[in-house]
Amino acid sequence: MNRFHSGIIIGVVAITAPLLVWAQGTIIHPADQVHEGNYIRAAQSIQILGKVTKDVVVIGRDIVIDGPIEGDAIIVGQNVVIHSTIGGNVRILASTVLLDAAVAKNATMLAGNLGTTPTARVGWDLTVFADRADLQGTIDGWLWIRSRHVNLAATVGNDADVQTGSALSVAKNAQVKGTLKYSGKHTAAIAEGSSLGNVEYRQAGAKDNGRRSGRNRPPLFWPLVFLFGAWVVGGVLLVLAEPWLAQNARRLQQKPLATIGWGVVGLVVAPVLIMILAVTLIGIPLAVLLTMFYGMLVYCARVIIGYSLASIIQTRTNSKLPPMALMVVGIAAYVLLIRLPLIGPVLGLLGTVLAFGLVIQTVTKRYEH
């Protein structure tokens, strides 16, 4: 097992294990039932056989989707199989993925092994980070892939940007209507009969040969793992506490300075309180619980602030997006901002302070209803 594949598995386990400890057994959404609204579940095994009218967020070991989904899908699991249409975007983090259906918009996959069948179709763009990718079917937009092994037997409606750790194999039934941009250690094996608009090959640098530094792993791998994790947590929060998230956005817009003030108090006082409790025997359990809550809130800050910022922008621009779309866009934008050089750490700290302020005001019942 190579390092990239191991990293995928570690990322999947890191995200799914805490939830699967509590979510045991199998969940089945029957084929003769229609689920109105968002469908969010966590279990060892999840089978969606019936229709879902909005978005799907599922976490599990084995996930099978056989029923149509009208909205977006965020999936974290070990083995994922999709046999039915998805009307929005798809984002998947898994060890093994099989796509055997149509995705109306964009598809983003982080996988150990990814396979798409001849009946698979991606309506917009396909983005892939994988150890091995076997692509068939149709991609109407762009293909962007980083993988150690790539077998391309699909039809790509625009450009295909492929970077491999070894080599690219292009089957005779493959079509790229734009430019195939390929980077790898070896020239691509292009079968006679394939239809390629143009081919640009750039050989990987010799300095990478023979090294065991793991540089074949995409540099954005772990940030994307954390982004997927934030999307999953955000989806769960959205279903469980959407009114509270909406209140956060209003509060942040109306009184940002008060929120910052409460946040600074919470961020500073909580560690002091934890240390005081930790030195007493009866206070140790409470100190442990408070430490866990403190860490969880630091992680959830990107979800709370990302959704709040997106909601504020939507209000000021008079645009209308569904809550799940706001959550996805807001978190992605916030994560991108905190990765900027120089100002990124400052924005990250500010977001954490604001999140603490919002939570403290909720606990002390100082929200304006």
Percent of residues in beta strands: 25-35%
Secondary structure class reads alpha/beta
Contiguous low-pLDDT stretches (5 residues minimum) are 1-10, 12-23, 206-218
The helix fraction, in percent, is 40-55%
N-to-C CA distance:
54 Å
> Main sheet?
16 strands, parallel
The helix-strand sequence is HEEEEEEEEEEEEEEEEEEHHHHH
Cα-atom Rg, whole angstroms?
Answer: 23 Å
Report the strand count. Answer: 18
Number of domains: 2
Number of helical regions = 6
Globally, the shape reads globular
Question: What is the residue-mean pLDDT, rounded to a whole number?
Answer: 83
Question: What does this protein look like?
Answer:
This protein has 369 residues and is an alpha/beta fold. The protein has two domains: 3-219, no CATH class; 222-363, no CATH class. The protein has six helices and 18 strands. It has helices spanning 3-22, 221-254, 256-278, 284-317, 323-338, 343-363; strands spanning 26-29, 34-35, 39-48, 51-52, 56-65, 73-82, 90-99, 102-103, 107-116, 121-122, 126-135, 138-139, 143-152, 155-156, 160-170, 175-184, 189-190, 195-203. The strands form two sheets. It has a 16-stranded parallel beta sheet that branches. Helix 2 packs across helix 4 (284-317) and helix 3 (256-278) packs antiparallel against helix 4 (284-317). The longest helix is centred in the middle third of the chain and has 34 residues, at 221-254. It is globular, with a radius of gyration of 23 Å. Mean pLDDT is 83; it is low at 1-10, 12-23 and 206-218.
